[in-house]
Amino acid sequence: MTDVNIESAKRAAGKQAVADHFDPSASHVGIGSGTTIVYVVEAIKESSTNPQIRFVPTGYQSRQVIVQAGLTPIAFDSLPEDTMLDIAFDGADEVDVELNCIKGGGACLFQEKLVAERAKKFICVADYRKKQDRLLTNWPTIPIEVAPISVPTVLHSLRVLGSSNPKLRTTLLEKSGPLKTDQDFFIIDAPFPKLLIAEDIAAGKGKGDGSDGTWEVNKLSEAIKALTGVLEVGIFSGLNGPDADAISGKEGVKTVTSGQKPVAVYFGMSDGSVEVRTAKQ
Ligand SMILES: O=C(CO)[C@H](O)[C@H](O)COP(=O)(O)O
User: Fold this and answer.
1) Statement to judge: residues 7 and 105 lie in one domain
2) InterPro entries, per this entry (predicted)?
3) Which domain holds residue 225?
4) Atom of ligand 1 nearest to the CA of 127
5) In degrees to the nearest 10, what's the CA dihedral of 10, 12, 18, 21?
6) 148 within 8 A of 185, measured Cβ to Cβ
7) If I label 273, which of 5, 62, 150, 253 is the partner at 20 to 30 A Cα–Cα?
């Protein structure tokens, strides 16, 4: 499959996601990072010229995409405390059948998670390579953002958790040394075996707590997040929108630890079609 087909698949997914979910009367819209989100912004630009909409970026690249499209950015930390985003769009590196995602291929996972959790509706767009049954099928590692001073300790702890060869991400071509995130932190990419979901545990495919070498998605996310030095882990799991609202008890307000999962993922397929995976209600 050529890059041209992959780009067309991304564009088709972005266009369809915007047609289905973007409301031109929205006040605040989150915009993720990566190459696919560019097509979402392109489609938003085509569908609306409403100057009242404020777009919340998930990092430097995302802000540039917003500004270059002539849209108005607003920093995440300028949002009033009680203001939710009407919607957030973002890409993903891999998505499983439950809509759990791996994110952070572009090193923006921390701000992406902040924005996803703050959105009433979180929608992902991706090409067909990202559509898998389980996480870590095609995408090889979990991206983890860490404080620079903690790198050796976190690498060691990840090996103890069962990661075969976690590595500090470097920028070999552009600059020698580790890649720095928008927070001036580092990224560790940690391989693990394919991640289980609840039905795999029920079917006896493993304990999913690391003790037998298997991990369930949420358990691994929690175990990595608990390591001192870890700012954020690139697993977006747990509950999604409506369920998360129910847990917080306040309509339209999500808890901090849930609502990371999209309610729908749009996959641009190699034949030009778009497949949609939605959250089970
Ligand atoms: O999580 C991300 C950046 O941290 C991106 O959304 C993810 O890597 C997908 O990127 P692309 O659209 O280029 O495939």
Assistant:
1) yes
2) NagB/RpiA_transferase-like, Ribose5P_isomerase_type_A
3) 141-235
4) 14
5) -100
6) yes
7) 62
Give the residue numbers marked as catalytic: 112
Residues 104 and 162 in one domain: no
- For residues 197 and 158, membership in a common domain is answered with yes
Residues 85 and 97 in one domain: yes
Length of the chain: 281
- Work out the number of other CB atoms within 10 angstroms of the CB of residue 76: 15
Contact (Cβ atoms closer than 8 angstroms) between residue 15 and residue 39: yes
**CATH number for position 207:** 3.30.70.260
| CB of 34 shorter than 6 A to ligand 1 | yes
Asked if residue 32 has its Cβ within 6 Å of ligand 1, the reply is yes
pTM of the model: 0.94
The torsion angle over the Cα atoms of residues 260, 262, 263 and 267, rounded to 10 degrees, is -170
d(CA 123, ligand 1 centre) in Å: 13
The conformational region for residue 166 under phi > 0 = left, psi -120 to 50 = alpha, else beta, is beta
Encode the chain (281 residues) as per-residue pLDDT tens digits. Answer: 567 799 999 999 999 999 999 999 999 999 999 999 999 999 999 997 789 999 999 999 999 999 999 999 999 999 988 889 999 999 999 999 999 999 999 999 999 999 999 999 999 999 999 999 999 999 999 999 999 999 999 999 999 999 999 999 998 777 789 999 999 999 999 999 999 999 999 999 999 999 999 999 999 999 999 999 999 999 999 877 655 554 455 555 544 334 799 999 999 999 999 999 998 75
Position in ligand 1 atom list of the atom nearest CA 91: 6
- Number of structural domains (the chain) is 2
ipTM of predicted assembly, 2 dp: 0.99
